[in-house]
Amino acid sequence: MPDDLRVILYPDPRLKKKSVPVKVFDDNLRKTALRMLELMREHEGVGLAAPQVGLNIRLFVVNATGKPEDDKIYVNPVLSEADGDEEFEEGCLSLPDIKVAIRRPTERVKMTAQDLDGQPFEEIGEGFITRIWQHENDHLNGIMIIDRMGPVAKLTYRKKLRELEEEFEEGK
């Protein structure tokens, strides 16, 4: 199954579902995460959440630098202790050609998650990595950047969103 994974696009309804916790830590989970890292790189992204490949599980992958040694995998992530507030433009692999200014805490965010063996770990991040964590975590909760768009951005991208909606209907 992991070989069949591909990035799905808005308005696929799987992107709006709240993901369920991962309970089984096995070879299939490992293969899925590795395939997600491949897809993230192929699409020149910095993060990819399981719902973006049609899986309803709490898993995302991240690489803020593009260097393979900086690949990170987060299973059942929980974010807390968010401080600061900064607006910055974000894109999304499931919403090609759309960039939206989103306000998020970025001075300090705590991440608690599990690795691919189910072992818990904790990280404290700041800056760009915390923005990626929050963006991908939103996907696990069925939230996309279009849900955070203001009225001007919605107006700006209404044609592109309509095109994506029409392509999705044609592809059914």
From TrEMBL:
Details of cofactor binding: Binds 1 Fe(2+) ion.
Any Pfam family matching the protein: Pep_deformylase
Family to which the UniProt record says this protein belongs: Belongs to the polypeptide deformylase family.
Organism domain of life: Bacteria
Function: Removes the formyl group from the N-terminal Met of newly synthesized proteins. Requires at least a dipeptide for an efficient rate of reaction. N-terminal L-methionine is a prerequisite for activity but the enzyme has broad specificity at other positions.
MF GO annotations: metal ion binding; peptide deformylase activity
Biological-process GO terms, alphabetical: translation
Catalytic reaction list: N-terminal N-formyl-L-methionyl-[peptide] + H2O = N-terminal L-methionyl-[peptide] + formate
EC number assigned by the record: 3.5.1.88
Cited InterPro entries: Peptide_deformylase (IPR023635), Peptide_deformylase_sf (IPR036821)
Residues at the catalytic site: 136
Keyword Protease belongs to the record: no
Protein name per Swiss-Prot or TrEMBL: Peptide deformylase
Binding sites annotated in the UniProt record for Fe cation: 92, 135, 139
UniProt entry keywords in alphabetical sequence: Hydrolase, Iron, Metal-binding, Protein biosynthesis
